[in-house]
Automatic annotation (TrEMBL):
<feature type="transmembrane region" description="Helical">
    <location>
        <begin position="95"/>
        <end position="116"/>
    </location>
</feature>
<feature type="domain" description="ABC transmembrane type-1">
    <location>
        <begin position="91"/>
        <end position="305"/>
    </location>
</feature>
<dbReference type="InterPro" id="IPR000515">
    <property type="entry name" value="MetI-like"/>
</dbReference>
<feature type="transmembrane region" description="Helical">
    <location>
        <begin position="34"/>
        <end position="61"/>
    </location>
</feature>
<feature type="transmembrane region" description="Helical">
    <location>
        <begin position="128"/>
        <end position="149"/>
    </location>
</feature>
<protein>
    <submittedName>
        <fullName>Multiple sugar transport system permease protein</fullName>
    </submittedName>
</protein>
<keyword id="KW-0762">Sugar transport</keyword>
<feature type="region of interest" description="Disordered">
    <location>
        <begin position="1"/>
        <end position="27"/>
    </location>
</feature>
<dbReference type="InterPro" id="IPR035906">
    <property type="entry name" value="MetI-like_sf"/>
</dbReference>
<dbReference type="InterPro" id="IPR050809">
    <property type="entry name" value="UgpAE/MalFG_permease"/>
</dbReference>
<keyword id="KW-0813">Transport</keyword>
<keyword id="KW-1003">Cell membrane</keyword>
<feature type="transmembrane region" description="Helical">
    <location>
        <begin position="285"/>
        <end position="305"/>
    </location>
</feature>
<keyword id="KW-0472">Membrane</keyword>
<feature type="transmembrane region" description="Helical">
    <location>
        <begin position="231"/>
        <end position="249"/>
    </location>
</feature>
<feature type="transmembrane region" description="Helical">
    <location>
        <begin position="177"/>
        <end position="200"/>
    </location>
</feature>
<keyword id="KW-0812">Transmembrane</keyword>
Amino acid sequence: MTLLSSAPGGAPVRRPDPPSPSPAAPVRRKQGGVVLAVPALVWYLVFMVGPLVAIFVIAALHWPGMLQPVSFAGSGNVRAVLDDPVFWDAVENTAVQLVVALPLMIVCAYMLGYYVAQKPPGHRVLRYLLFIPGLISTPAKAMVFYAVLSPDGLLNGGLEKVGLGSLTDAWLASPSTALYCLIVLDVWSGIGFTAVLFAARLGSVPDEIGEAAQLDGAGHWRAMWRIHFPVIRDFVGVVTMLQFLWTLFGSAQNVLLLTQGGPGSSSTTLSFLVYQKAFIAADLGYSQTVGVVLFLVGLAGLLTIRRVFRQNY
């Protein structure tokens, strides 16, 4: 469009049209964004997709050690895994660990996070205290629990002091308690950090929602579960998925440090079985077959959690 303006003498003067944006400019910007994403895409393919494919490849091989000759095993590893009673013990232990630890951790962390979000006296100090388990390394946490649960540890000593010596036990060496001691460690390690995440998310909920609930006569319990929980339902799902993955794949380090999967296979989990067969028994094919099972369990668990906690609106 040509613009007209008046010259000092009163005569109209034509001004040229402003340059129109080139149609190719958005295309060039889009191509530039794709180019910037290439390094991250290459990194993801090499270090994420590559190892995932390698798990399935190694699961089909008979590989008795890193420097040993490799041969094709076909479905032999699958049959060996399914016929192994230790594998089924690991499946049962992993199921118990998830069923007990995950709901307990999420429910307690949400309630604790709700309390912190109400900003009680000293809530800032409480946030820092809840972070303490996350600041301690895994070996240090294992040493603390070993000092508490060993036969001459603090727990047995405390029971004897109060006259309950008949309840003392070798907690980490007993088939009936070893797994539950590991579950307690998982819950203690994750509940504080998870509570801080919940408190941060609940802090972003508009104050008007809580005020309206109070005007309607809702107490803290009802406001916590009937008002605030539906608002952050999707965030609860994200945190639950993170803790599910940590419990499923990260339990091997606690088992390794405290019980070595024993006594027998009473505390062996799937993630520890992967480590045990790969680095102790030197059976890489068996190990990665269990790794495939672990991957499928994790994928199914993520999809289930996502479906359960998706928003209904």
